[in-house]
Design goal:
The protein is mainly α. The chain contains two helices and no strands. This is RNase H type-1 domain-containing protein.
């Protein structure tokens, strides 16, 4: 589903941020599932 795809993209982004030692990340979403 679209929610599943958005959640997987969210997790991939978090992993990438960790891999590059990001000091700050900003996540924008309109999905209550991801944001809650």
């Amino acid at each position: 589903s679209n929610n599943q795809a958005e959640y997987e993209a969210f997790l991939a982004g978090l992993r990438l941020a960790e891999d590059v030692d990001a000091k700050e990340i900003k996540i924008y979403t309109d999905s209550q599932l991801v944001a809650s």
